[in-house]
Amino acid sequence: MASRKELKRYRAHLADERHSAAIYETLAHVEKDSDRKQVFGELAAAERTHAKVWADKLKANGQPVPDGQSVKTFMMKSLVRVFGPKFVLPTLAAAEFADRNKYAGNPETATMSAEERQHASVVQGMVNADKPEPTKGAEIAEAESWHRGVSSGNDLRAAVLGANDGLVSNFCLIMGVTGAGTGNKAILLTALAGLIAGACSMALGEWLSVTNARELAETQIALEADELEHTPDAEEHELRLIYRAKGLERDEAKRVAAQIMRDKDKALDALTREELGLDPAELGGNPWTAAGFSFLLFAVGAIFPAMPFLWTSGTPAIVQCIGLSIFALAAIGVFTSLFNGRSASFSAIRQVVIGLVAAAFTFGIGRLLGVSVS
Fold first, then answer.
1. CA atoms 67, 71, 76, 78: torsion sign
2. 40-99 residue pLDDT tens
3. pLDDT by residue (tens digit) across 247-263?
4. Which of 138, 281, 310, 317 is the most exposed place for a label (fewest CB within 10 A)?
5. What pTM, to 2 d.p., does this model score?
6. Rounded Cα distance, 94 and 73, in Å
7. 276-289 in b/e burial notation, b at 16+ Cβ within 10 A?
8. Does domain 4-151 have CATH number 1.20.1260?
9. Taking a C-beta distance cutoff of 8 angstroms, is the pair 241, 274 a contact?
10. How far is CA 163 from CA 51, 321, 324, 337, in A?
């Protein structure tokens, strides 16, 4: 008979495998590319096989096998259907990477352990499929799943964290002025000012960040072009060293470098990618797009605690503000569970507790300042 701890582990593994299987089945359903559709189908079948192992273990110990879908699974499937596979694949790749060794060290699960590591590599390969081939060691390391891991960035993570910034900051701001005994109109004005000021600050910060990165890249490329114009022999020597470092033989590296240097545009492109580690087509992205998304995401989060003061006032408005903020905090917590490896309930509760503690702190500060000023 398995111990209570082992039974808990069986249930956790069963839930994880069913979750992965459901996501892969949804990906296979919406994917238009026939090859990828087949890969997703095979991954789903493998996860279903893994899930059966844990279900059978529970049955063998006289335990009921849980049924139904988790909130986390439902949300991820919805995101796949609405935004498509490419939107969720980075998150899925990070989760697969985090779980790749969960069965390691147990002879009974050696086959499943090998398959899980293979799944992580396959999904990360799909994420990298549409990217240009990396040209520098750092880029190669970043592209590999074992280096990227759970830190890999993606649109879903950025959207959730951007909305969280707006929600928490405006919720705390509103609680601070509420604690000071401010009237409804002043609270509403403060909330809207906080929304606009915070969103503008986030947008400006993102615009500056991307613009500075872009300008630095353009300056570096201009310097490289000047060196290529005035010291072509030195630049050709640098190319030879780069290709030697990549593993080419001395004569082959010399031949490749000489061939590239015949066309200055191609030579500049090669030096930009190989020496500077920059993609001439990207250069950090579009600063206006980045600023617009930052503004929008912050505003989406910040509007929740402010809304009740639009239609009511006094205690009802404060209660509704707290209620809406708790709901939004819980929703953000559930979304973060998609890429932090925690359960949806744990992530939601943690997010709500942290948000309420921060709001209570600012409320207390507001109350102290309000009393002292009055």
1. positive
2. 999 999 999 999 999 999 999 999 988 878 888 888 899 899 888 888 888 788 777 777
3. 888 888 888 888 888 88
4. 281
5. 0.64
6. 16
7. eebbeeebbeebee
8. yes
9. no
10. 35, 16, 14, 15
